[in-house]
Structures are given as C-alpha cells and as structure tokens.
Design brief:
By secondary structure, the protein is α+β, with helices and mostly antiparallel strands. The chain has two domains: 142 residues, Roll (SH3 type barrels); 109 residues, Photosynthetic Reaction Center, subunit H, domain 2 (Photosynthetic Reaction Center, Chain H, domain 2, Alpha-Beta Complex), CATH 3.90.50. Helix content is 18%, strand content 30%. The strands form two sheets. Strands 1, 10, 11, 12, 13, 14, 15, 16 and 17 form a nine-stranded mixed sheet that branches. Strands 2, 3, 4, 5, 6, 7, 8 and 9 form an eight-stranded mixed sheet that branches. A hairpin with a 4-residue loop joins β3 and β4. It is globular.
Length: 282
C-alpha cells in the first residue's frame, strides 16, 4: 500500500517538472496545473548539492493566518545514520526546486557564497517559529523576510475585510490536519481532512472539510483557504462566511483525491469572489 502511495505521489509531483517552485525575488503569473495534497510532499528527499547532504521532508512550516509555506523541515540522520539523534533543519521553501529526473527536491544556493548556511535544531527541540525566530532564520539564509512580505501582500489583497491581525508565527502543516472547522456562530461544521498546496506559489490554496461522520466515498467540499480564520488558542478554524455564502460552497462538491486540478481551484475562487488571492505568492 505504501509503495502505491509513493508511486502516485511521484506521478503528481512530475506535473511540476521544469517549473521552479519558488525562486528568490521572482514573481510569476503562472499557476500550477495541479494542487498537491500536503501529505504527498512529506517523506520526499531534498538534496542540498552545495553541502553534499540529503534530507527527508518531515513537515512544512506554514503561516496559518495566510497559508504561506515558509520552510520545509528536513530530517538528517548523519553519515549512514551513525548518530544518536536526528537533527531537523528548516530549509527556506523559496530555495527549493523539484528535480524531475531524480523525482526529488533540490535546495539551491544554501551554504555557498551569499546563500547563508544550514540552521539545525535537535530533533526534540524545534517548535513553532515566532516572529523573532523567523526573522533570524531568514537572516541566516541571507533571504528577505518573505514570511513578512507574504503577510503584507495577503493583507493588501484582503483590505479591511480580512487582515492578518495576529503576530507572525509559523507552525507545522500536519498540526492543521483534523483541526475542527466552526461556523461564525460556533457550530461544528467538520474537520480538516486534506490540505491542497500550490507548490509554485508556495501557499495552501484549498482545504477539504469533511462533515462529522462523512464517509470517504462522499463528495468532499473544498474550501478556499482565505475563507478560514485560524485560532491559535483553540487550534481550530472558523469558516468566516455567511450561511448564504456557505451554501455557494456546496455547489462545488468534488471527489478530492491526492490532487486537485488548478481549473477547479480557479472556479471555486471565482465563485466566492476571491480571484485576487490567487495572485498572492505568484
């Protein structure tokens, strides 16, 4: 079963062949052909040629207020695994590209010239990255604070309707899976089942919200990430729309699997009046 899962993941990731996922200082109008389920990115190898090291993605660090992907958390086990503890290294997503021939990710410009060097944490000590930690990480990798820039771009698009108010922090993508999703009035609507990533722009674009008791064969209702507000204290989302707008989401029941067509994403965003959000991050 695991072999089948990895094969499907490789096929999906091939859709990004030849397309930089996020290049430093580069803005693009291109959108991906597919959105990839976040879990398909986990356990993928990332090669760092400048350091002659290869790590494995154990998680992604995201800003839950905007859905921005900041870092891939890589696990290194040392030379042939001959260390007592693994270490975790947050690698800027802006430096990561997909290598189609090897079906792996490659991190460019790290530890060479002006590219900064790898920052490592003990496996049992890394945690949520707050604003200070994020600033330090971007400085270590000789990058602009792209987390802050993404937050500002998101707020500019949102205007006064939805401004990223909370202090800039990032947490693990996997912590968002199974998070409750509430209505404005506090009713339980369901749980986060899947998160679909735009690897080109570096954002969570859609969330598969499953109603309590949903069976796998039932249609998945895909929700644009900008409609969700994350509560750090409660660890849950609020679907910040009226009941009328919530009904409009039901017009797009989709049997979501390991990927979602970008055409579907654009239709849902346009239907909800969110087309401007697609430009955030590229």
């Amino acid at each position: 079963m695991r072999a089948v899962f990895l094969f499907i993941s490789a096929v999906m990731l091939l859709a990004y062949a030849g397309v930089p996922l996020a290049a430093q200082g580069q803005q693009t109008e291109l959108l991906p052909e597919l959105l990839v389920q976040g879990q398909a990115v986990l356990n993928r190898a990332v090669n760092i040629p400048s350091k002659d090291r290869t790590g494995e993605i154990v998680d992604l660090m995201v800003d839950p207020a905007t859905g921005h992907i900041g870092f891939a958390l890589l696990s290194f086990s040392g030379f042939m695994g001959l260390v007592e503890k693994n270490v975790i290294a947050p690698i800027p997503w802006a430096r990561v590209e997909f290598e189609p021939k090897q079906k792996t990710f490659v991190a460019r410009g790290i530890g060479s010239g002006e590219g900064g060097d790898i920052v490592e944490y003990d496996e049992d000590k890394w945690q949520v990255f707050d604003e200070t930690e994020l600033a330090s990480l971007y400085e270590s990798y000789a990058l602009r604070n792209q987390a802050q820039e993404s937050r500002e771009a998101y707020s500019e698009v949102a205007g006064t309707d939805k401004v990223a108010r909370e202090r800039l922090s990032m947490l693990q993508l996997t912590r968002l899976i199974n998070a409750p999703v509430m209505s404005r009035k506090g009713a339980l609507l369901g749980y986060v089942d899947k998160l679909y990533l735009d690897l080109t722009g570096g954002f969570i674009r859609l969330v598969d919200v499953r109603s309590p008791g949903d069976r796998l064969e039932q249609p998945a209702h895909l929700v644009p990430y900008p409609l969700l507000d994350y509560d750090w204290g409660e660890g849950r989302f609020t679907l910040d729309v009226s009941r009328k707008d919530q009904a409009r989401l039901e017009d797009f029941p989709v049997h979501a699997g390991m990927y979602v067509q970008a055409q579907t994403m654009r239709q849902i965003y346009r239907n909800m009046g969110l087309a401007e959000y697609l430009r955030v991050g590229g």
